[in-house]
Write a structure and sequence with these properties.
- Helices cover about 45% and strands about 15% of the residues.
- The chain has about 575 residues and is an alpha/beta fold.
- It has a six-stranded mixed beta sheet, sandwiched between helices. Strands 3-2-5-9 form a four-stranded parallel beta sheet, sandwiched between helices.
- α7 packs across α8.
- The longest helix has about 35 residues.
- The N terminus and C terminus are likely disordered.
């Protein structure tokens, strides 16, 4: 698959949730200490237990911070095994001796499963029942509203609708009927006398607002205002609705960052109804029902493990949960009720590589940290291309490049051509980020010890334990990097940690675990961190980072082409 592949509609829908904050306080994450780390290994698996003890000895992790769990497979386990056995055992262990208040990071090692399989589609699903019931109610209300519009300016009865047909209608079908009945009503209103016309217009406006929300009224007024055809009343309504819609959009965005549950879903439906009317809520419900039907309830073991301390672990499994360690959500008080724990994984295609990851990280720290060249590989998206998630990510890459150039002595080479860095183009590589070569590693690098590589693609941790895997995570680890990020199943581009947040935290002196978890959007999803969580590739400098906001895509391209970023 080529690097110009477009993201799914679902990714674009959620892209609005990934706007970087302007300031990142380096003290949001305290210095992670060995005594705050616990290691989880596979019981009865000699290599797994040995690797766990080796890591703990090398890093000075207390011997009591080791938990051995029984697992049936190192790649994928059934959801029931996680829910009924493993998670219960881990939760109980963390509760003993008050460990849950002391441990900030869990380390899984080779032998622990990579993935938790999807929940059975036949399993009871309270969310599906909630949606189906809400859909029935809203379809009935929509039909009642449509019939009321049909009666405006009409004497006598109108033909009754078929409830069985209404129940099967999709949002587009409702939208077509809505447009037709409103158009007919407008024609009838124009034929009324002046008194009835005012009353009919007012009733139609009220009905339209209920059926289609504030957005439709605003769109109509927006056209009138821009064409100079609005009167004072319409102009006042326009400005009122503009503020109302902005508030609704902000509220919908905030609600979308809360853990999905019935009261949040009810709130979301109320907000969507105010913005997009009853017809809009039918679309929202149908989108979520389709998501459940797709069965997207699998997750990376590590990502699910990060929620082990949540007070109620009967959270919804369809797709993801918010990561409350993320910088933009860190200060929300709700995070106190949903404590998230950092998780990192010491794992690689070969057991020997796992030990090398540990040893190299420690050696680099003792030597004073990484020195070499940073390589950022953009996708060559034109400034004239329409807005997209890919373009947002490229701007974020440019932001990361700017910060590294201003705050470190590292050399930086940035590529903004459609072709990736080619073989031999990247000597002395210490940091890499780029895309998009899906599941096909391009060996352009001569990695220095302790290097970190991150490819912006959506399945790059798949095949971790398979011979000859060409995905980026296993290939990077076997080629010499000591830490990387990837997804064990298709995750969507919007689920990947943004480069600016991750790399700026690293350069600021944070550990790879802290850098990952403050930039990772989701938990209970498919993206994980490979590497020693205590690895600090750059000395701690205890400063607050200022992240300058780039003024558009054109600035991004100017930055990438600037001579000072050339490798000299």
């Amino acid at each position: 698959m080529n690097r110009t592949q477009k993201p799914s509609c679902l990714v674009l829908i959620f892209s609005c949730l990934f706007v970087s904050t302007l300031f990142v306080n380096s003290n949001l994450f305290g210095q992670l200490l060995p005594e705050q780390v616990a290691v989880i290994a596979a019981s009865g698996n000699g290599e797994s237990e040995e690797l766990a003890k080796y890591y703990m000895e090398k890093r000075g992790v207390p011997a009591d911070n080791l938990l051995l769990v029984k697992v049936t497979d190192e790649n994928k386990i059934p959801r029931a095994e996680w829910k009924d056995s493993i998670s219960v055992e881990i939760e109980k262990w963390l509760a003993e001796n008050n460990r849950a208040t002391k441990i900030k990071c869990l380390v899984t090692v080779r032998g622990i499963p990579l993935t938790i399989d999807a929940e059975s589609l036949d399993a009871p699903n309270a969310f599906r029942s909630f949606l189906e019931n809400e859909r029935r109610i809203r379809v009935e209300k929509t039909r009642t509203g449509m019939d009321a519009v049909k009666k405006i300016g009409v004497s006598g009865e109108i033909p009754a609708a078929d409830p069985s047909v209404d129940a099967l209608k999709t949002r587009p079908e409702w939208a077509i009927e809505f447009e037709n009945v409103v158009t007919d009503a407008q024609k009838r209103i124009q034929e009324m006398n002046s008194v009835d016309k005012v009353q009919g217009s007012s009733e139609l406006e009220n009905r339209v607002t209920v059926l289609a929300g504030s957005n439709l009224i605003f769109t109509t007024l927006d056209k009138q205002t821009n064409h100079g055809t609005s009167n004072d009343r319409a102009s006042n309504n326009y400005h009122f609705l503009r503020g109302r819609i902005a508030t609704l959009q902000e509220a919908i965005g905030l609600a979308g960052q809360l853990p999905p549950q019935n009261d949040v879903d009810t709130l979301m439906l109320a907000l969507v109804e105010r913005a997009s009317g009853l017809v809009g809520t039918i679309e929202w419900i149908d989108t979520n029902l389709e998501s459940i039907k797709e069965g997207k309830t699998e997750a990376a073991f590590d990502s699910e493990l990060s929620l082990i301390l949540w007070r109620d672990r009967n959270y919804r499994l369809d797709r993801w949960q918010p990561n409350f360690l993320r910088t933009s959500l860190k200060e929300l008080s709700i995070g106190i009720d949903y404590p998230t724990i950092m998780v990192a994984r010491v794992d690689a295609p070969k057991w020997e590589t796992c030990r090398k990851m540990i040893d190299t990280a420690i050696e680099v720290e003792k030597a004073g940290g990484l020195q070499g060249t940073v390589y950022f590989d953009a996708r060559g998206i034109s400034p004239q291309d329409p807005p997209s998630l890919e373009k947002q990510i490229e701007m974020d890459l440019a932001d990361a490049a700017r910060e590294i150039s201003l705050s470190s002595t590292l050399k930086l080479k940035a590529n903004n051509e459609p072709a990736l860095f080619a073989e031999g183009e990247c000597p002395d590589a210490v940091l890499y980020c780029g895309g998009y070569s899906l599941a096909k590693y391009v060996d352009a690098f001569d990695w220095k010890p302790g290097a970190i590589g991150y490819h912006l693609s959506t399945v790059e941790a798949m095949g971790m334990h398979e011979n000859g895997a060409t995905t980026w995570c296993p290939s990077l680890l076997e080629d010499g990097v000591v830490a990387t990020i990837g997804a064990v199943e298709e995750c969507g581009l919007g689920a990947l940690p943004r480069p600016a947040g991750f790399f700026k935290a690293l350069v600021d002196g944070q550990t790879v675990a802290e850098a990952f978890w403050q930039s990772n959007p989701y938990s209970s999803w498919n993206v994980i961190l490979f590497g020693d969580p205590l690895y600090r590739p750059f000395p701690k400098n205890n400063r607050d980072i200022y992240l300058p906001t780039l003024s558009g895509t054109a600035t991004m391209f100017a930055i990438f082409q600037c001579d000072k970023f050339a490798n000299s």
